[in-house]
Amino acid sequence: MFRAKRKLFIIVPLLALLVSGCGGANSKEDAASAPAKDGDKAVTIKLSNWYAKKMDNWDVVIAEFEKQHPNIKVEFASAEDNNSNEFYKKLDLAVAGGDDLDIIMFSNMTFLSQRAGLGMIEPLDDYLAKDGIKFADEYTADTSIDGKVYGLPGKSSQGLVIINENHLKEAGLELPKDWTWDQYMEYAKAMTKKEGDKTRYGTYFHSWIQYGYLVQNFGQPVNANLTTDDGKKANIDNPFMRKSLELRLQGEAEGSATPYSEVVSQKLNYRPQYFNQDTSMILTGSFLIPETGGTETIPASFKTVFAPTPKLKAEDPIAANVSGDVLSIYSKSKHKDEAYTFIRWFSTEGIVLQGKNIPSWKKADLNDVVDRIIAGSKNPEMIDKASLLYVLENTKSTTAATAVPYHAELEKVLLEEFDKMMLSGQSIEDTIQHAQTKIQKIIDSKS
């Protein structure tokens, strides 16, 4: 979810921070890309993130950028553990300690928004205007906050469903190209298989509370959060929340979804559940596409096919909210021009070259992007290109409003009521009404 239509004080359960830069975008003819003259000293910019340099092809990206821009060197600053939670903690400490920062990646707009409100992020509007760039013509995601652009989007992660093709065929099911949530649960039931005391579940819903309100969170462009988009009213008592809770209880009652009690008590994770074939399908994001073709640590042993995000009603369009990484410039960076040069280049040419994610850049060749992702996987034959392209080409990408600053507090309230429903038998109606009342009280207290 990218767009932030409210004031600049916004956050989520984790913490985040910032970067620096500025310069000439994708053009190889601007000053930043000109060969360094004799005696010129190359500027080094720091790219702060949480990714693994080699595994995620950042070494390839940086080498090509420095080749095209010999007067700019990129320092890759990362713990390389793919843990954004820890990254945000360390970045907060770095800012508090007065460390030099340039470019900082955010895993989504919510983390960026709060920092923009604190004056930590450099607006990019002047840089874009100087290059004659119209943001909406370039990117699918909207990274504006109160009319100003505070970051350029990298990968675009949209909702989709990954399915074990063997399990699908075993159940005699056709790969869905357009389906509802009711049909999703029918597929989950059909693919559930019991052998002795072991059950292979048709689907798995992760412990994140976002899977508690999945119908509105994944597919509703308006009022997708726990407040209405204006931040003034609790947004629990609605058909999308009610359907979400019904689906979760249905999965428990029918035994078609991994029991919630096991998910939380055993601290299960969606990756091993799917890749170890303990579940047949998962609603996830397009960020997981490369892994369906296997990695060095977990080779793919079965073929994955793809289906679009389910819909509440059959007549609804196929749509999914998008989120993804955003690259921003630290307001106190000493090298803003150079940092901008990098984030503009990476958000266009660089992310395609990286070959790991679907870019937000509209001018990318989607077929080429998918080919690169598949080719870069350990077992490329295990990714079904045809169904993947179908989902990507036929899903309308929507951008939901960024959550309120105290969103994590609201999610905690919902999680408490959700747990009572899933683990203690509280009714759906009581769950909705209790959460609606408690969340409204919090909203009123913030006014």
Strand content: 5-15%
Name the shape in a single word. globular
Distance between the termini: 24 Å
| Strand count | 14
Order of helices and strands: EHEHEHHHEEEEHHEEHHHHEEEEHHHEHH
**Any idea how many domains?**
2
- Major β-sheet profile: 7 strands, mixed
Q: Can you give the helix content as a percent range?
A: 25-40%
This entry's quaternary arrangement is single chain
Fold-level CATH name of the largest domain: D-Maltodextrin-Binding Protein, domain 2
CATH superfamily of the largest domain: Periplasmic binding protein-like II
Content-based structural category: alpha/beta
Q: Mind telling me the C-alpha Rg?
A: 22 Å
**What's the mean pLDDT score?**
89
CATH hierarchy class name of the largest domain: Alpha Beta
Number of helices: 16
| Uncertain segments | 1-39
Q: What CATH architecture label of the largest domain applies?
A: 3-Layer(aba) Sandwich
List its traits.
alpha/beta, D-Maltodextrin-Binding Protein, domain 2, 2 domains, 5-stranded mixed β-sheet, 14 strands, 38% helix, globular, disordered N terminus, Bact_solute-bd_prot1, Sugar ABC transporter substrate-binding protein, signal, SBP
